[in-house]
Amino acid sequence: MIEFWFEFGSNYSYLSVMRIGALAAHHGVTVQWRPFLLAPIFKSFGWDSSPFVLQKEKGAYVWRDMERRSAKYGLPWVRPSHFPRRALLPMRVALIGADQPWMEAYCQRIMQMNFVHDREVDSPEVVSEVLAALNLPVADILAGAQSEANKLALRHATEEAQARGIFGAPTFFAGNEMFWGDDRLEDALAWAAASA
């Protein structure tokens, strides 16, 4: 089993969301989807945005790197006109879907809305569109996502991420071993498979 900690505003999480299902199946590893929020963790470092925004040179590198890596994996990529995008509502829905069979498809579609179609994902309209396309009960899921219990659960998930030393997304845990970044996905899966 591998824990997959991700955020819809994270460009490198996009690459992992699109790849992890098939790669995990190839390794015989199950994926535990762990949505959390990056903004509170960044704020704890004294940052008011992504380091890719705060550090000009790093940002320039990252956008070219995303072009290269997306091409390598055969994934479509459009640099978002607004980055990082707020994704609170879709993250709350992801928490509801974390152990549901529709989770991977939902996450992939939300990521594509952000990083392929350049749409604002933190809206009931976009989230409803994605859920409806998956033939899911839109109203029930949105109501559950906006419940106080679910909001608190996402806050707790973010606190857990921080307590476990997560500083960015995507992050993977294979047992107690932490791997950070999309470029460590294969290593994390190999470790999880070898430890099973």
What is this structure, in a nutshell?
With about 200 residues, the protein is an alpha+beta fold.
Describe the structure.
By secondary structure, this protein is an alpha+beta fold. The protein has one domain: 3-Layer(aba) Sandwich (Glutaredoxin), CATH 3.40.30.10. It is built from ten helices and four strands. The protein has helices at 11-27, 39-44, 51-54, 56-73, 88-97, 103-115, 124-133, 138-145, 148-163, 185-195; strands at residues 2-6, 31-35, 171-174, 177-180. A four-stranded mixed beta sheet has the order 2-1-3-4, with helices on both faces. The longest helix is centred in the N-terminal third of the chain and has 18 residues, at 56-73. The protein starts with a strand and ends with a helix.
Q: Write down how many β-strands occur, each being a DSSP E stretch of 2 or more residues.
A: 4
Instruction: Please provide the ordered H/E string of secondary-structure elements.
Output: EHEHHHHHHHHEEH
Instruction: Indicate the proportion of strand residues.
Output: 5-15%
Strand order of the largest sheet: 2-1-3-4
Structural class: alpha+beta
Fourth-tier CATH superfamily name: Glutaredoxin
What is the correct CATH architecture?
A: 3-Layer(aba) Sandwich
Number of helices: 10
The low-confidence runs, each spanning 5 or more residues with pLDDT under 50, are: none
Tell me, what's the shape? globular
Percent helix range: 55-70%
What is the alpha-carbon Rg in Å? 16 Å
Q: Specify the CATH class.
A: Alpha Beta
* Cα distance spanning the termini: 8 Å
What is the mean predicted local confidence, pLDDT?
94
CATH topology: Glutaredoxin
